[in-house]
Amino acid sequence: MTPATPDVMLFIAGMHRSGTSALCAALRACGANFGEQLLAPMAGVNDDGFWEDAGVVDANDTLLASVGGNWYAPGTAACAGAWPVEAQREFQRRAVEILRRGFGAGPLWAVKDPRFCLTLPLWLQACEALGIATRLCIASRSPLEVAQSLRRRDAFPLGYGLRLDLVYRRALLAGLPADALQVAYPDLVSDPVAVMRGLAGSLPLSVDEAALAASVRRDLRHHQQDTTDSLLATPVIPGDRFPALETAIEEEYPAADMVDELVAGFVARGAELTALGEGHSTALATIATKDASIESLAAEHRQALETIAERDTQIGQLDQHLQETGDHLGHALATITERDEQIAELDRRLAEIGALHSHALEVLDEIHNLPVLGKAVKVARRLRAQR
After folding, report:
1. Widest CA span of the chain, in angstroms?
2. DSSP character for 226?
3. pLDDT at residue 291, rounded to an integer
4. Contacts of 174 (CB under 8 A, 6+ apart)
5. Cα distances (Å, whole numbers) of residue 27 to 178, 212, 334, 346
6. Which residue ranges in the chain fall short of pLDDT 70?
7. DSSP secondary structure letters along 116-160
8. Could you tell me the CA-to-CA distances from 379 to 367, 372, 384, 387 in Å, in that order?
9. For residue 344, what pLDDT is reported?
């Protein structure tokens, strides 16, 4: 055992939609600890949470499945507690593991699951093996309110919900401890403080009126029956009245009508599923068309990318050619510049030679014009020309 053994392990049972969640909220407000592995709330179903430990629910569901049952159709074997030996052995192993894991600190551990109506004796055995003291608290609500809530949440015919409620009541009665506590859902909703003070006489609870006022919400009671003498509107029904309850259910909600309603519901659901299937097929065809269009676009995109790649290659080649041409042009421009410089130099030198020649002619003219020397030079030039 772990050191966090509680003074009491409180099991909370009762038919689905019978107020077990509201009772858990009130218990938590007064100090009960439900652990940290609870199922999440579901809007419109249990807005404030289911208060069910995920491991506990899974263990109970697995045990029901071992005899082909489930919470909404448990079957004869589950109601009689006739579990397969291997399934029962595996369940005990898991139950002990969950109990050793614990549900937090504090003197009062609390665990809730409507399936306890079917599996409670095995949980009590596991607690006894671990030396954990236990108590049971039953949440009760009128069969008709339960059935109406099941119709709202699960679309069950009222006749089916009433019969399922009776199945759970009978199964729970078969394994009921002598010291079981009981809370009527209408009492809890109308005066949670009085109800919790009553439980505090048997359980380690600290009644907190402010916390209770915030935890127990009257607005979550969607279905409410006027007080009548009918068993269908009575929350707490002793076991010896179950035959009368069964008779009342058959009289007001005959099995034949229930079957007809179930069949009509299945047909309607089948039509809905058919419509959904047709819509699904249409959607798949549309998706296939879209996929084909997308594939065509993808092919065009791939071709465009290939064309772009080809153009990029051509542009690269052109850039290289332009680069080479630019290099040649640069060389040619450099050569032209060099030649221009050489021509300029040649023009300068020619200009100098021209200037020297002009100067020589001027000197020669001056010599020719001299009286004696000029004549001598002229004669000499003439003799040289005759040779």
Report:
1. 180
2. P
3. 72
4. 79, 80, 81
5. 21, 9, 101, 119
6. 1-4, 41-50, 218-228, 269-287, 322, 329, 332, 360, 363-364, 377, 387
7. HHHHHHHHHHHHHHHT--EEEEEEE--HHHHHHHHHHHH---HHH
8. 13, 11, 9, 13
9. 81
